[in-house]
Design brief:
The protein is mainly α. The protein has one domain. Helix 4 packs across helix 10.
């Protein structure tokens, strides 16, 4: 590792473990917010362009989002494992060990991504049939996914790279990689969907191809920055003992984190299954609602990408009081922010619905969604922060248990009961009530975990 890279990492570490907490977290989080605004906004742009192709294509995206997010969730779990362990090593100023662990983590990512993407390629149609996709929607789903899977491995590697940059406190580079991917995708989307100029008109398949090209471009940039600039990818193969130790440490966090993350799209897929009983219009509206939810929670997601690194580096440096202060500060800010977002969504619910569909039935369901579900976004945001905190606190299984309880004990029963009593409106009320009950459970487990680690809360 070169001297300049070490000094840069040491400088970032010093700020993270000594500077005022709120301003430091804000400074670290803002670049990620810019990146997430671009990425999540791109998801809305995708839905907007695809809506011109018809209701079936828009409904197809409603089915695709939970499945594609499953892949993202696996890579986020791997990235979380690398980030959690690396941040502690950097906090303890053990840079060489951090570089070895990062490299071994990338070997693991390649293997997992090949297995997962191959599995999806073989079972595409049965999977979408299982979650309730109708025959009329299936051609659009298959056209998108068969192309999207080509870039699946590169997508996972890029996301793990981004997590690694955040672990070393370099959120600016992490954000830059994400924004490059967004920019390339944004430029190519309308060209390939509608066949503008010399480009072929590929419809929904064009949206998938634009994503693949963007992901491959970002992956090469990420590897160059991490390997050449930061010198954190070691060319030499590890010894058996080194790799075994790092592998065991990584899977200890990665497997529960991956499972916890995968439960989120599984939950979305089951909710989509419930909604599908009310027709393609309901699925289309629910898919748009999911996109809006992602944008509404973007600061929570941005903070969840930096808070674990902040906790990890301070734990590594023995600064336990800063861990407690960081979590409390994050909770207070995110709850007030989501309250503001909810009010804004209510005020602009009708214009938002009209933006994404020209069909009155779809618009009505979107408006209903916006009045009911976002009321619980503050609680949902804090659950997100609790889950990522559990991983870096060395308790990834608790994050898994929270999500398991959220799915099987709360969401599914409440959605089922709600649909029986109030139809699709009942599903939306079930989601909001589910967020409340899940937060009560998650908060209690966080306090218990911090107490066992002798961290006052």
């Amino acid at each position: 590792m070169n001297k300049s890279s070490t000094n840069s990492a040491a400088g970032r570490r010093q700020a993270i473990i000594t500077q005022p907490i709120a301003p430091t977290l804000f400074k670290l989080t803002m670049p990620m917010l810019y990146a997430l605004v671009a990425i999540m906004g791109l998801g809305l742009v995708d839905s907007y362009f695809i809506s011109f192709l018809g209701t079936q294509e828009l409904a197809a995206m409603g089915f695709i989002v939970p499945i594609s997010f499953t892949v993202t969730s696996v890579s986020l779990g791997l990235g979380m494992a690398i980030s959690s362990l690396t941040s502690k090593l950097i906090g303890a100023n053990r840079m060489n060990l951090a570089a070895r662990l990062i490299t071994d983590g990338f070997y693991l990512t390649v293997v997992v991504s090949i297995i997962l993407c191959g599995f999806l390629a073989i079972l595409l149609e049965p999977i979408f049939t299982l979650v309730g996709a109708q025959a009329a929607t299936m051609p659009a789903i298959m056209a998108y996914m068969e192309t999207w899977l080509i870039g699946c491995v590169f997508l996972m590697l890029t996301q793990v790279c981004s997590s690694t940059f955040r672990a070393i406190g370099d959120t600016k580079t992490s954000a830059m990689i994400a924004m490059v991917m967004t920019l390339v995708n944004l430029i190519l989307d309308p060209l390939l969907i509608f066949g503008i100029g010399p480009f072929p008109e590929l419809g929904i398949q064009g949206a998938a191809l634009a994503t693949v090209i963007a992901v491959v471009t970002s992956c090469f940039i990420a590897f160059y920055q991490l390997g050449v600039k930061e010198k954190l990818l070691i060319p030499a193969l590890p010894s058996y003992t080194q790799f075994k130790d790092n592998f065991l440490q990584l899977i200890h966090i990665a497997i529960p984190a991956m499972l916890a993350n995968v439960i989120v799209p599984i939950t979305a897929a089951i909710m989509t299954f419930f909604v599908a009983k009310y027709g393609a219009e309901a699925v289309a509206a629910f898919g748009v609602g999911g996109r809006i939810e992602a944008v509404s929670l973007m600061f929570a997601y941005a903070l969840s990408s930096t808070l674990p690194m902040f906790i990890g580096q301070n734990l590594g440096a023995g600064e336990k009081s800063r861990v407690t202060a960081a979590i409390k500060t994050s909770f207070k800010f995110i709850f007030l922010l989501q309250l503001f977002v909810y009010v804004a969504l209510i005020v602009f619910s009708n214009p938002i619905a009209e933006l994404f569909s020209q069909e009155t039935q779809v618009q009505d369901i979107i408006v209903l969604f916006l009045w009911v579900v976002p009321a619980s976004y503050g609680l949902s945001a804090m659950i997100i922060l609790i889950n990522v905190s559990m991983n870096v606190l060395g308790k990834p299984r608790i994050a898994l248990y929270i999500n398991l309880a959220r799915l099987f004990l709360i969401y599914i029963p409440l959605a089922f009961i709600g649909s029986r009593w109030l139809g699709i409106e009942g599903i939306f009320y079930g989601i909001s009530l589910g967020n409340l009950l899940a937060f009560v459970i998650a908060f209690g487990l966080l306090k218990k975990t911090l107490g066992k680690l002798s961290i006052a809360f």
